[in-house]
Amino acid sequence: MPELLVIGTSHHTAGVAEREAFALAQDQATALLRAIHADRAYDEALVLSTCNRTELYVTPCGGGPPDPLPDLLARIGRARQMPAPEPDTGRMYRHADRDAVRHLFRVAASLDSQIVGETEILGQVKAAYRLAIDARTAGFLLNRLLHRAFRVGKRVRTETALGQGSAGVPQAAVELAGHIFAGLDEKTVLLVGAGQTAEAVARTLIRRGAGRLIVANRTLYRAQQLALDLAASPPRHEGDEATQTCGGNGTSPESAQTPTPATETIELDGLANAVLKADLVITSTGATDPVLTSEALAPALRRRANPVMIVDIAVPRDVDPALGRLETVYLYDLDDLDRLVARNLARRRHEVPRAEAIVADELEAFERWLASRQVAPTIRLLKKRMRAIRRRQIDQYARQFTGADHDELEAFAESMGKRVLHHPIALLKQLATDGATSQRLATTDLVRRLFDLDAMEDTEDAADATGADEED
To answer: Residue 470 — very low, low, confident or very high, per pLDDT cuts 50/70/90?
Structure first.
């Protein structure tokens, strides 16, 4: 039976329709975790459900099912109030122990994301951990494991450039503007269109601190609805490339929300006046003909004192190419953005080996820690610690005893040491036989800290490194 098991499905193994059979909203994930806590079928559990993945991490206990997969799928079905998903190995994956730890570390590092390097996933993992804590299903092992995963994600962010540069068109449009303007905090941005792409652009603009937004749309109601959505659910500082409005278990980044700037909504017949106010224009309508025409806007644009930047991310194009020939207009289209995205993706691919090396390094460190918390090495070090204590005490008082008395001192000290260790060792052996993983690891950790066994193990490692011999 593995100590840690993860089952899941993601964009790597299943399409959107197939992933929907596993997706868990926050209340469903909470219900699933509470049910696991109530019947004690698993020692610990965590649910990570995002737009692109649903994963269930568990530490089985002695009384659990011999094959957890059917049981876990049945639990997902009950939480969704739907039939249990089929155990289709083609659209699901299953990892145990070391492979499960490595998988989580790669997820936290965004190496397993649909857009490698996206920043939202680490916040989603943290939110999943908080959900498990609230449901009381995060015990000793998951606590240590998740904090190590957070460390992996932080190291990848700070020690590599994996997350630098936008890899999506809406975000690249704002990044391109960032190359032109020193900052967007005092800029007015005209957003032409109010669909999903426009919303992604708007949320990225807000995260980048845009000072004011003007939303223009053929239907004023849709522009007003977008403004209301932005105000009701302000984007957070991170996660530029992830869809903030997708479902899941509430696993959004834990960073603070960004205030929504002042937002004005207009119909398309007000574009001429809006263009005069804007420093940046980003268009993303579904129109078949240009919305920003030279005939309608050239007179207004010629009167501008300062140039305006226009980014056209629509197909077909929203902007008449003739406007780009005006001295007061800097016009960019999808070809420019595609080149920027391609450069960013190439840079990210170059950083992947460095990120993978961090995952490998942290995996090795976690495995060393986990191995040290097993019962056998703990008992060995515990006996060694007691022998060292016995030897120091005998050496201290040996001069007061001679002959047979000295032999009795040796026997007494050895007997006392065995009596002191009898119950701790018996408990450790019992936990090794029938104890839950979390309880066993927590107990060995406590014993190691009470007797300072980690320091003794470090001394052994140093002796091994120098070739020194030490009595065991």
So the answer is: very low
**AA letter at 98:** R
Task: Identify the residue with better confidence: 220 or 40.
Answer: 220
First to last CA, the chain: 32
Residues 6+ apart with CB under 8 A from 348: 116, 117, 161, 162, 163, 164, 165, 167
Q: What values do phi and psi take at 39, rounded to 5?
A: -100, 0
Give the separation between CA 30 and CA 47, rounded to whole angstroms: 9
Whole-Å CA distances, 148 to 104, 144, 179, 240, 257: 10, 6, 36, 24, 26
Q: Which of 232, 337, 240 is nearest to 284 (CA)?
A: 337
Question: Rounded to an integer, what distance in angstroms lies between the CA atom of residue 375 and that of residue 235?
Answer: 47
pLDDT at 90: 77
Active-site entry in 4, 23, 51, 128: 51
Domains in the chain: ranges and CATH: 5-159+348-370 (3.30.460.30), 169-332 (3.40.50.720), 373-466 (no CATH)
pTM higher than 0.85, yes or no?
no
pLDDT tens digits along 334-382? 999 999 988 888 989 999 999 999 999 999 999 988 877 777 888 788 8
Residue 254 has pLDDT above 70, yes or no: no
- pLDDT tens digits, 424-464: 888 877 777 776 777 777 887 888 888 888 787 766 665 55
* 3-class secondary-structure state, position 467: coil
Q: What is the DSSP string of 2-45?
A: -SSEEEEEETTT--HHHHTTT---HHHHHHHHHHHHHHTSEEEE
Residue 348 tokens, joined: 């990210």
- Decide if 61 is catalytic: no
- CA 102/CA 348 separation, integer angstroms: 20
